[in-house]
Amino acid sequence: MMIKKRLTISNILMLVVPAILIVAIAGGVLEGFTEIYGTKMKVLDDNNGTYYVHKVLNTYSKNLKDYNKENEEDKKIEEVLKEVGYNLIITSDEETIFSNLTDEDKNSISKVQSDVLSSSDSIVLEVNYVCLIKNSFIKDGKSINIIAVKSNNLMSREHMKAEVKTFFVSYMGIVFVIALLIIILTNGILSSRVAKSLIEPLDLLSYGAGQIEEGNLDFQMNYQGKDEFAKVCADFDKMRIRLQVSVQMQLKYEEDRKDLVVGISHDLRTPLTTIKGYVKGLKDGVANTPEKCERYHDIIYNKACDMDMLVDKLFLFSKLDTGKFPFHFEKVYCNEFLKSFFKSALDEFKRKGLNLSYENNCNDNILINIDSEEINRVLMNILENSAKYKTRDYGNVNITVNKQGDNIVLRIKDNGPGVLEENLSRLFVSFYRGDAARTNPSEGSGLGLSISEHIVKAHDGKITAENMDGLVITITLPISGQDEMHEEHI
Q1: Which helix (H) or strand (E) element contains residue 467?
Q2: How confident is the model at residue 473, as a pLDDT?
Q3: What is the reported pTM?
Q4: Which of 272, 364, 392, 412 is the most exposed place for a label (fewest CB within 10 A)?
């Protein structure tokens, strides 16, 4: 799941889940509070408790056995009525047998008309914040009056408000604490899950960066997620692979550079040693005839020319290797260019012991974008290589040209000894001659095919080598277009 979607769902759940839980738990808490406060609120709210008190007085009257003296039932009813704010007086034929009235109660009773109190009727009065409940009956010829008095009914209302306030504060306090705990718990669980999904790929990236810092490029970023980090980890792994390839190429370049230095040193030292030897011979008078002196001078000059050619090739190779060589590309007709080269090379390489044959299977209107001088150099290097390594007095080289898709394929095959299979991959390495001892520098600098590879690659082409009853060099160059008018003209 994508991180953006995961965060959206998490945020929605952080709101919805606590809301549902809070409503459910708040309902349960409310049910419990209703049970606790229900009876008390019912008593207070039922006509300020008058119905409840009247019922209590009736029950007392039925259970009272002795109406002439204070008994245990009086204490019980006193405690019951005190809970709802009432005091009590019991009289028998106007003789008080029990009373817990306060002065305020007595003062409140005095404000009530005496005929009302002395009557034998049961009454309920609420006057001037005074609530009076009287239960009168005659038993055994005696007039029994039970009077319950609440002198300050306003206080009863305030008490009810206080109870309601207490109920509300307690209920809301508990609900708030529970809601806070639910929110903290829900957010903690959801946040930890989201954080885990973020920390895992971050730890993996941190591990990868640490491995790269330590120089280890053989690890893999095995991230199985399908979120945004999947692309990041995949790109990181691609970067690791590219860096690994780059390091390997750098190591190869360093190795090639070392070989290059060794090759330069060897190929310069050999002609220098020869020059020094013949110069010393001239100085020491070894060349004591004009003919010897001339021969010594010719040898010194030729060796100096060989060194000059080597330096020129090294300079060319250096510019090609660093990408600073100035190519001059132009579109030319492929057949015209190759025919021109073949005509000019035919006699030259015949003198060097090579018989050239040419076969072109392409149309005359095919255009290729090349630097003609440098492609000439490539072809000359390949033919010179065949001439140097031929094993007979005369060697044969067959040049064929074909069109394959959007490319021109040029195959140059000789009938020489070829190259050992294990050395084919090193054929285009600088200073490679197939001669491990390098004891025959007259055979060339070993830079020709390496220079050829650089030039072909600069033309977006490809050059390869294989053994097939001799050595076959294949050059592939892209076609840049076809000139229909040229074909019609031909």
Answers
A1: strand 462-467
A2: 92
A3: 0.48
A4: 392
